[in-house]
Write a structure and sequence with these properties.
The chain is α/β, with parallel strands linked by helices and 280 residues long. Helix content is 38%, strand content 26%.
């Protein structure tokens, strides 16, 4: 695994980032804004151009993470956030025909989990949940040493589970701060970092909601480790104590004793995670 040379692509709604991954490191990165409102073919060309800037003849495969709905087996992207022209794009076959090497695709949450499993906090773990806490909530699952995506690539969508008057995503993503406290998570973070009591209390409240989401994950898949990514995870020091306090009444105490919960520590994990699809 350490000798493989791969390309990882993080395709977002506004940017495409491609990285040359050699062993455990990213040795070259390209980042470009995409013309998200353009025709399908124009955006595809931008993806190809970005990959072309980092690829070389030694690359064995290309992995792509997509924030949307896709068929991983057929390699068809059915919807991407903020790219309205992409309705049923056979991206896998287009890129394989162009670059003449295998192309693997998955959603961004599954790529995050794969990246942590191969390159990050989840090394040597057979059961891992990669939990993204950002503008939304989603998770990728490593179960018994394999990425588990379900029949329709929908496994791990814990954010969509009903909770209180909405769902977990509403209470555990950035929506929590904007809807209930009329502020962005970034602004609350800055206030908490300065020691403001009200901001610290907001994160305590957030930690209580998140603890219930994590209990749901523990009941469902019982991982060894939960690695958190996304913008909200950067505030972990402000809600860590509340989170662990709220988890103490979990009925299966060996689970709480053994579980690790930690934020990601790797830069460019989205690129590494896309490349890690090669190893699944």
């Amino acid at each position: 695994m350490n000798n493989k040379m791969l390309v990882g692509v993080d395709l977002g709604g506004t940017n495409v980032r491609s990285g040359l991954v050699s062993g455990q490191e990213i040795t070259k990165i390209d980042s470009d804004r995409i013309q998200s409102k353009s025709d399908e073919s124009i955006v595809i060309k931008q993806v190809i151009d970005s990959i072309s800037k980092v690829i070389n003849p030694k690359v064995e495969a290309i992995g792509i993470g997509v924030p949307g709905i896709l068929d991983t087996k057929e390699g068809i992207v059915y919807d991407v956030q903020n790219i309205p022209s992409w309705k049923a794009v056979p991206l896998k076959s287009i890129l394989e025909n162009h670059f003449q090497i295998p192309v693997l695709m998955n959603n961004d949450a599954n790529c995050f989990a794969a990246g942590e499993w191969h390159y990050g906090m989840g090394k040597k773990k057979n059961n891992l949940t990669g939990l993204i806490l950002g503008t939304g909530v989603a998770a990728g699952l490593i179960c018994e040493g394999k990425l588990y995506e379900g029949r329709n690539c929908g496994a791990g969508e814990f954010g969509m589970i009903p909770y209180l008057d909405h769902n977990y995503e509403f209470y555990c993503s950035g929506n929590f701060f904007s809807h209930f406290h009329q502020s962005s998570g970034e602004e609350v973070y800055k206030r908490a970092a300065s020691g403001e009591l009200a901001a610290l209390q907001i994160f305590q409240e957030y930690g209580k909601h998140l603890s219930l989401l994590i209990k749901t994950i523990l009941y469902a898949v019982d991982p060894e480790i939960i690695v958190m990514g996304g913008s909200v995870s950067k505030a972990f020091p402000f809600f860590r104590a509340t989170l662990w306090t709220e988890l103490q009444d979990f009925p299966y105490q060996p689970v709480i004793k053994n579980i690790q919960i930690t934020p990601s520590e790797i830069d460019n994990i989205a690129i590494l995670g896309a490349a890690a699809l090669y190893f699944n």
